[in-house]
């Protein structure tokens, strides 16, 4: 590790590496483009298609059936002496648990825009996240072959939405059947705009990052683009240049040129911005720069987990520093015991080959290692135990479903499989509801959950019963109160005795549960305090008035009694639990409901009806914007409980054209009538 960039020349193997992620809206053509690049680079004899279900990256049966990518897939190409690592990601918002982590593994984000649809929400979102993560960005306008597309209009819109840094590297020509390079080339007739002017705009933008180049440019008039490599890389790194390329994955127009751009202009691992590693936890964590040098200690980051029903757990990773070799001993985070890399793989969709080593900047996979988990940092130096990547901002899953196996006896298997699926997808959550003994799954949307069920059915042959979506209510208190319980049992032989006094106080939203031991004079001996805490936490997890977990309170145990012979752990667990229940009942308990931030986009004409409907669902509109002409996106807040089956309603209001996304905003108390219903319903179940 060093503080500054090493002056040593770049290792030739590393200079030959490119890594990119194809991101952007569903249906933009990312998978088709990946296929076209594979074919063009000579890795495939002929390109497959999404329609025929034979692409390298959409290999999963469910992906073929839906004709959409559902998982990120890692591809690899060798061409012109270079090695390209490419990640194809799903565009549907429900699968950002797969697409966002891809941005942690590459030097360039390629944002693919669908020329037929203009700038869709996922394109804006990915532009933003890629910029936050310090990635170089390249925009590809795909489907230039499609009839009726307005390419000059779209280019103007891109510059309006993402800034004047968006400049075309090539322009469509001959009715979009090919594209003309504007960086190395200055002549030729394009379908719109002048190649010469586009060239000039690019060169001017690039030289701006370096005063010496500005001076040369002003005195010489033009500069040979081949001399502009260093300022070009700097402009990409600083977001001062966001190149735009045109392509058609279908006709092949612009694909060879895109490959050429990747090879000649995109950064190798030493030319991108360094990834955001931190050493240490919390506010004390310090930024750390990984060095893409083979001699350094190994530092690698797991950005994807594949839980294969037959092959076991596989971690897909990017090597950030050092050379990762087969048979190396690696440590996972702060684990003490190393594991051996017995299978080091290079992936090509579902296929893989064994490799001997991976250089910094390369993507590879380690198979059959149970210790691996999403976001793990692998290293070979105990000094590096507390290194991690700055966390990604994942949306919180709030769409819930209660599920159970159709066949009795499959409960345990279901639970194990669900946990494996959660390992793979950071936006999926499972929970065992203590109060109702149900298995709850939470995802980002209806599609996310529907596919989870299909996967259980098709991959794991598990038939599942579901109940209507459950809302993840919580309980809290709004006043301080005290509670007490004496647990005493005298049955024949040894008795059970434990007595607890405790106080509960409300804490701020999001504070969780704070447990404080304030007993004096050993009235509850130290060895029983964990039992009291266990009882308290059990009661909190089960909830008191409505059967939902209690949150945001401080519990202070301040008095109690024990018995030198009859005091037992179980007695204190029970006393702690019941004292808490007693205190909470007196502390003006409230039921909280999740409030979600919604963004609804639909044709302008439907917006009046949509906002009216949202208001009737206790929602509030906070703003609107127009992502593409004719479409309005309304942002607002609404209780999640009011949005059950919202897509059906939206379809009715917008002629099937509306879309919406939800993210958890915060929790708020439910209206008093709802609280009364939830409490009454819980009592009925309890009394059964
Ligand atoms: N006309 C035309 N159609 C294309 C082009 N590229 C892709 N398509 C079609 O667009 C549809 C979507 O393509 P995909 O490659 O699956 O898009 P994607 O971006 O991978 O979509 P997700 O996996 O859902 O994120 C398919 O029907 C493709 O055949 C193109 O350049 N021109
Ligand atoms: Mg795809």
Automatic annotation (TrEMBL):
Keywords: Elongation factor, GTP-binding, Nucleotide-binding, Protein biosynthesis. GO terms for molecular function: GTP binding; GTPase activity; guanosine tetraphosphate binding; translation elongation factor activity. PROSITE patterns: G_TR_2 (PS51722). SMART domains: EFG_C (SM00838), EFG_IV (SM00889). One of its GO terms (biological process) is ribosome disassembly. Pfam families: EF-G_D2, EFG_C, EFG_III, EFG_IV, GTP_EFTU. Residues 15-276 form the Tr-type G domain. InterPro entries: EF-G-like_DII (IPR053905), EFG_II (IPR041095), EFG_III/V (IPR035647), EFG_IV (IPR047872), EFG_V (IPR035649), EFG_V-like (IPR000640), P-loop_NTPase (IPR027417), Ribosomal_Su5_D2-typ_SF (IPR020568). Catalyzes the GTP-dependent ribosomal translocation step during translation elongation. During this step, the ribosome changes from the pre-translocational (PRE) to the post-translocational (POST) state as the newly formed A-site-bound peptidyl-tRNA and P-site-bound deacylated tRNA move to the P and E sites, respectively. Catalyzes the coordinated movement of the two tRNA molecules, the mRNA and conformational changes in the ribosome. This is Elongation factor G.
């Amino acid at each position: 590790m060093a503080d500054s960039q090493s002056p040593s020349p770049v290792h030739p193997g590393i200079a030959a590496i490119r890594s990119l992620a194809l991101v952007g809206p569903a249906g933009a053509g990312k998978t088709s483009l990946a296929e076209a690049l594979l074919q063009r680079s000579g890795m495939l004899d002929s390109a497959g298609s999404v329609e025929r279900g034979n692409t390298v990256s959409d290999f999963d049966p469910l992906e073929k059936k839906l004709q959409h990518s559902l998982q990120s897939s890692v591809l690899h190409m060798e061409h012109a002496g270079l090695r390209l690592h490419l990640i194809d990601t799903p565009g549907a918002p429900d699968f950002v648990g797969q697409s966002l982590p891809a941005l942690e593994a590459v030097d360039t984000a390629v944002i693919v825009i669908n020329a037929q649809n203009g700038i869709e929400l996922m394109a804006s979102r990915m532009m933003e996240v890629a910029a936050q993560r310090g990635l170089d960005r390249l925009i590809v306008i795909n489907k230039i072959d499609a009839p009726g597309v307005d390419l000059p209009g779209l280019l103007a819109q891109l510059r309006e939405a993402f800034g004047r840094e968006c400049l075309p590297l090539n322009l469509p020509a001959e009715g979009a059947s090919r594209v003309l390079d504007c960086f190395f080339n200055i002549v030729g007739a394009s379908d719109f705009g002048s190649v010469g002017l586009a060239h000039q705009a690019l060169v001017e933008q690039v030289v701006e990052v370096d005063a010496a180049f500005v001076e040369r440019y002003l005195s010489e008039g033009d500069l040979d683009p081949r001399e502009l490599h260093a300022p070009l890389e700097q402009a990409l790194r600083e977001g001062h240049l966001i190149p735009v390329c045109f392509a058609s994955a279908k006709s092949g127009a612009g694909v060879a040129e895109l490959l050429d751009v990747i090879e000649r202009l995109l950064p190798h691992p030493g030319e991108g911005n360094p990834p955001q590693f931190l050493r240490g936890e919390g506010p004390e964590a310090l930024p750390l720069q990984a060095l893409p040098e083979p001699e350094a200690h190994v530092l690698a980051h797991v950005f994807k987990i594949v839980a294969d029903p037959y092959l076991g757990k596989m971690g897909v990773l990017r090597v950030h520093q050092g050379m990762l070799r087969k048979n190396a001993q690696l440590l996972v985070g702060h684990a003490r015991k190393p594991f051996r890399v017995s299978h080091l793989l290079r992936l090509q969709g579902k296929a893989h080959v064994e490799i001997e080593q991976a250089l910094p900047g390369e993507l590879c996979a380690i198979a059959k290692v149970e210790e691996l988990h999403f976001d793990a940092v692998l290293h070979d130096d105990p000094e590096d135990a507390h290194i991690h990547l700055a966390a990604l901002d994942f949306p919180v899953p709030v769409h819930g479903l209660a599920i159970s196996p159709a066949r009795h006896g499959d409960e345990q298997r279901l639970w194990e499989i669900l946990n494996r699926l959660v390992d793979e997808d950071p936006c999926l959550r499972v929970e065992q509801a203590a109060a109702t003994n149900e298995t709850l799954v939470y995802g980002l949307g209806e599609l996310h959950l529907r596919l989870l069920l299909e996967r259980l059915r098709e991959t794991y042959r598990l038939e599942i019963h579901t109940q209507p979506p459950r809302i993840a209510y919580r309980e809290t208190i709004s006043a301080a109160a005290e509670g007490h319980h004496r647990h005493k049992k005298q049955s024949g032989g040894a008795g059970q005795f434990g007595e607890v006094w405790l106080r509960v106080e409300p804490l701020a939203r999001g504070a969780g549960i704070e447990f404080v031991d304030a007993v004096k004079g050993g009235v509850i001996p130290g060895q029983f305090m964990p039992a009291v805490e266990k009882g308290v936490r059990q009661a909190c997890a089960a909830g008191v008035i409505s059967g939902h977990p209690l949150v945001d309170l401080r519990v202070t145990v301040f008095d109690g009694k024990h018995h030198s012979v009859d005091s037992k752990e179980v007695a204190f667990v029970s006393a702690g639990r019941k004292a808490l229940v007693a205190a909470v009942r007196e502390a003006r308990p409230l039921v909280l409901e999740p409030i979600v931030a919604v963004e609804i986009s639909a044709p302008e004409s439907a917006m009046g009806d949509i906002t009216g409907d949202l208001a009737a669902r206790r929602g509030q509109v906070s703003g609107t914007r127009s992502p593409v002409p004719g479409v309005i996106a309304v942002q607002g807040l609404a209780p999640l409980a009011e949005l059950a089956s919202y897509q059906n309603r939206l379809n009715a209001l917008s002629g099937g054209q509306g879309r919406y996304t939800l993210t958890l905003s915060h929790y708020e108390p439910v209206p008093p009538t709802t609280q009364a219903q939830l409490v009454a319903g819980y009592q009925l179940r309890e009394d059964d």
